[in-house]
Write a structure and sequence with these properties.
By secondary structure, the protein is mainly alpha-helical. Helix content is 44%, strand content 8%. A two-stranded antiparallel sheet has the order 1-2. A hairpin with a 2-residue loop joins strand 1 and strand 2. Helix 2 packs across helix 6 and helix 3 packs parallel to helix 4. The chain is globular, with a radius of gyration of 17 Å.
Length: 167
């Protein structure tokens, strides 16, 4: 029997997946974390409530870990997921069991996902890539000019990080 690959619900798994698919980080974890913090915690409880309602009504299952997400990701996630379904569908075609932010990576586990005994790219892995790239900011997409300005102004100790193209 083949050995299982690393657990998909981990930052190492997602980072390795991105590297294997040719995506290299362009933002350091420190800069990403700071950017997510600068984008605020105001209204986090409102976004959490809206996300829980979204999952309850459109995915049946409310994943564990929602409250641990940074506010910008929590705010954007329902729209990102909803836009992934076919137009005539009234529910998501998958159920997310748990999710979280680990080492600057959005990690998620699907209720329907079976253990992977090969190193092939699965549909679940494609979803991991698609969602990570859609959530902004992220490790694999340059910060917006507006975000760079905010970091420059509010976190002068990170100005040098803004000039690095890779961590």
């Amino acid at each position: 029997m083949k050995e299982l690959l690393p657990v998909p619900f981990s930052a190492n798994y997602v980072k390795a997946l991105f590297l294997r698919e040719g995506h290299r980080p362009v933002v350091s974890e420190k800069l990403l974390t700071s950017s997510l913090e600068l984008l605020g915690v105001d209204k986090k409880n409102d976004y959490l409530r809206l996300a829980e309602e979204f999952f309850r009504s459109k995915a049946i299952l409310v994943p564990s870990g929602l409250a641990s997400l940074p506010t910008p990701w929590l705010r954007a996630l329902p729209d990102i997921l909803w836009n992934m379904r076919k137009p005539n569908w009234e529910a998501l075609p998958f159920m997310i069991r748990k999710l979280g932010c680990m080492d600057g990576v959005f990690c998620l586990a699907f209720a329907q996902e079976l253990p992977n005994f090969s190193d092939r790219l699965t549909g679940w892995d494609r979803l991991r890539i698609q969602i990570n790239l859609a959530l902004q900011p992220n490790l694999w997409t340059p910060l917006s000019l507006e975000m760079e300005r905010l970091v420059w102004k509010k976190r002068p100790e990170l100005r040098e990080e803004l000039f690095k193209t890779t961590p």
